[in-house]
Design a protein that fits this description.
The protein is an alpha/beta fold. Helix content is 28%, strand content 20%. It is built from eight helices and 13 strands.
Length: 259
């Protein structure tokens, strides 16, 4: 099974212009993401997809394969799909699974990617997978920069929103607080079908409720340059606040920020 990773990125972020090249300990954010994704045991290659020459130039400096895309995309999935088709044309090899990793996830661990792909390998009915993480504070829960998710008792996602959901306004303060982590593997054909769907009014408001995928908790650590993954570094990540992975089926969100 041919699984590739694609990191869609653009300089014109609506909330943080120039974000992909923003330095973290002297390394551009997208560099942290690419180096970490390259450690995945399940990805045959990791690409950067962008419409910006600045990002392409940096990718060349770190020897990251880069695919130039149109500058008209409104969603990360659209940029990812264009890049995937160009990669297939260049390599002559069909993609089975494409993992979309947002360029603003510098705390990505390679195990997170490997875990997210596992349900697609194990279950033919699963078409798209995502990760989720617990929200630790009310401040983070109310932060519109975090995409929240509500799941049912079986772990199926019911709703995504930048609003604090479920609501705490009626005096119930112990609601489950979960957020989306933007590591999203798609089956090839499903990504193309998903992008062909017209956005609904709910999707345009940055929420969505459709189609099964899975979620799991997020592990984090704080590297300067991503080190080779060892048992020690995994333990350090867990001590830094990681939770043991858990999974739940959910549906992809179509109204997210542009990448």
């Amino acid at each position: 099974m041919n699984a590739i990773g694609i990191i869609p990125a653009r300089m014109a972020s609506s909330r943080f212009p120039g974000k992909p090249l923003a330095p973290i300990h002297g390394i551009p954010m997208i560099g942290h993401v690419w180096f970490r994704c390259k450690m995945s045991k399940t990805l045959s290659e990791v690409y950067i997809a962008t419409c910006d020459e600045e990002i392409s130039h940096y990718a060349e400096q770190i020897s990251a394969p880069c695919i130039m895309t149109a500058d008209t995309h409104e969603r990360a999935t659209d940029r990812t799909a264009e890049a995937m088709l160009k990669i297939e044309a260049q390599t002559g090899r069909r993609t089975d699974i494409v993992v979309m990793i947002q360029g603003d996830e510098p705390m990505t661990l390679p195990e997170m990617i490997d875990e997210s792909i596992a349900p697609l390998r194990a279950e033919p009915a699963v078409n798209v997978v995502n990760l989720m993480a617990p929200i630790e504070t009310v401040e983070e829960f109310e932060d519109p920069n975090e995409v929240k998710v509500v799941v049912d008792l079986a772990g199926n996602a019911l709703y995504f929103s930048r609003e604090p959901i479920p609501s705490r306004k009626k005096g119930v303060t112990n609601v489950p607080m979960l957020k989306q982590v933007c590591i999203i593997p798609f089956r090839r054909d499903y990504l193309l079908r998903f992008n062909a769907l017209p956005p609904t009014p709910t999707c345009r408001s940055s929420t969505a409720t459709r189609w099964p995928r899975r979620m799991s908790s997020k592990a984090t650590d704080k590297p300067l340059i991503p080190p080779p993954m060892t048992a020690t570094s995994i333990v350090m990540a867990r001590r830094a606040g990681a939770r043991r992975p858990r999974r739940s089926a959910v549906g992809p969100r179509r109204g997210g920020a542009r990448r």
